[in-house]
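// run 5 | inverse folding | seed 20
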């Protein structure tokens, strides 16, 4: 059985995706704690002193690439499961992800209800 996710952090510069994902996640699991960040630096500061079960991290953001964010997490010794979020699956991203032990997979935007249910550990 998959790990049950109770506290989820999204780092993505797309406000529309935040709104859609928040609505869908709360419909699937009303008691989940959700934290959305458009700015990766704000997310990084929050993660320095807070815990979460899962981080969904956009690969391409204007302020900081997802890969750079992972390096920063490693530098502070923060071990959190990460799913990389992308709008197009670039095979190079999969190769790069192998360098990071905390990356457990890729998600392609937009996230549908089935994928979100699976992420939360609620799929049969």
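// decoded
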């Amino acid at each position: 059985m998959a790990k049950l996710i109770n506290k989820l952090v999204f780092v993505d510069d797309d406000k529309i995706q935040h709104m859609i994902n928040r609505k869908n996640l709360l419909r699937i699991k009303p008691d989940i704690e959700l934290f959305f960040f458009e700015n990766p630096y704000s997310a990084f500061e929050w993660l320095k002193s807070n815990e979460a079960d899962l981080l969904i991290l956009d690969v391409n953001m204007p302020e900081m690439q997802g890969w750079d964010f992972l390096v920063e997490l490693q530098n502070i010794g923060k071990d959190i499961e990460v799913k990389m979020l992308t709008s197009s699956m670039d095979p190079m991203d999969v190769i790069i992800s192998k360098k990071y032990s905390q990356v457990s997979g890729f998600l392609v935007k937009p996230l549908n209800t089935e994928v979100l249910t699976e992420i939360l550990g609620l799929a049969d």
